[in-house]
Amino acid sequence: MQANHQATHDALTGLHNRQYFIEHLQKRMNTLRESGEFSFLLLIDLDHFKNVNDSLGHDIGDRLLQSVVARLQQYVPKGCVVARLGGDEFIITGSSFDDREKCERTALEISEQLLAKLKETYIVDQHHLYISASIGVSIIRGRRANANSFIKEADIAMYEVKAKGRDGVFIFNEEMSERVETHLEIERLLHFALSNNEITLHYQPQLDEMEK
């Protein structure tokens, strides 16, 4: 019993771990495929958490993570599953919805509530700490895919929040997917272009009109 708990839970926070969550998500996807319903995935990454570890030490950082988890457990609605992916990343699955728009609206409402609560002051060993979070959302459909594909979508959306200044929420969409695929294709083509000597360097002189 204890060995099973250790295999499926995070030692520091007591939350489910990545391995358990991926297995749980795969089962949820199978259920959603049969019912035709939707659910959501929230990937939460704490902003500037590394600064706490670097300036105050990992002991304070660990206790801050435990405080964050206490708030997540307090404010995440019943029926949701919360897990720690690793480091300062957490992930949540929601309940099921018949309507995609209602699913997206609920995901945004929960995300905004969590953002507000996670920004409230933490007091750890007499240190007053202030952090925020970036949340990426992926809408889980019953399409044939593996669990990691939805986690990747939420991760891409989360980095979109980071790029826009952090402390916010973003839902993954097809436009974002196409942009990522385009960037990956350009990187792939550039890699082969360099290895095949298909790129050459030319210097273009810049002339000052006043010197003519």
Plain-language structure description:
This protein is of the alpha+beta class and 212 residues long. It has seven helices and seven strands. It has helices at 2-8, 18-35, 49-56, 58-75, 100-118, 147-163, 174-195, and strands at 39-47, 81-86, 89-93, 122-124, 127-129, 132-140, 168-171. The strands form two sheets. The protein has a five-stranded mixed β-sheet, with helices on both faces. Strands 4-5 form a two-stranded antiparallel ribbon. A hairpin with a 2-residue loop joins strand 2 (81-86) and strand 3. Helix 3 runs antiparallel to helix 4 and helix 4 (58-75) crosses helix 5 (100-118). The longest helix has 22 residues, at 174-195. The model has no long low-confidence stretch (mean pLDDT 89).
Q: What is the strand tally? A: 7
| Low-pLDDT sequence parts | none
Structural class: alpha+beta
- Amount of beta strand: 15-25%
Instruction: Evaluate the radius of gyration.
Output: 22 Å
Succession of helices and strands: HHEHHEEHEEEHEH
Strand order of the largest sheet: 2-3-1-6-7
Measured as a percent range, the helix fraction is 40-55%
The best one-word shape is globular
What distance lies between the first and last C-alpha atoms, to the nearest angstrom?
85 Å
Q: What is the makeup of the main sheet?
A: 5 strands, mixed
Q: What is the number of helical segments per DSSP (H or I, 4+ residues)?
A: 7
Average pLDDT, to the nearest integer?
Answer: 89
